[in-house]
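Batch manifest, entry 17 of 40.
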Amino acid sequence: MKKRRGTSYFERIDGAPDPVAVSVKRRVTFSEVDAMAIVWHGRYALYFEDGSAELGRRCGLSYRDFYHAGLRAPIVTCHIEYFRPLQLDEEFTITAALIWDDGARLNTEYALYKEDGSLATSGYTVQVLTNYKTGEVCIVSPELLETCRRRWRAGEFS
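Output type: structure tokens
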């Protein structure tokens, strides 16, 4: 994996479609900061989740979609890099990008940008798809993910 500054975390597969990306605007609230009025480090994973949830809604991979398909998508890796702290009442933008992978997994890259456009935080998550009832990891990509990929290749997310 590479650091986010100037490059991506996941290698791109030749011939794969460009990442699907979304942006979400937020403002830091009082409950998210520590005594120094900066965002507590553990909160950044929740900001990533805000971006991930919006990305899932856009791609047909929302929590509701997983539930109806009998799937779960637990995070097996979460990596966060901190560059500039966010502060109380500061507005920022969360970007989340789903990166193409041929396996039964979701590779997502995140970046949090301050109002001036500077990078505050970046990171990534890896989620594997599992059977909801048994918890077994899907070896073959389930139909829900294949449907997403067909739509992605057709350019529906551009």
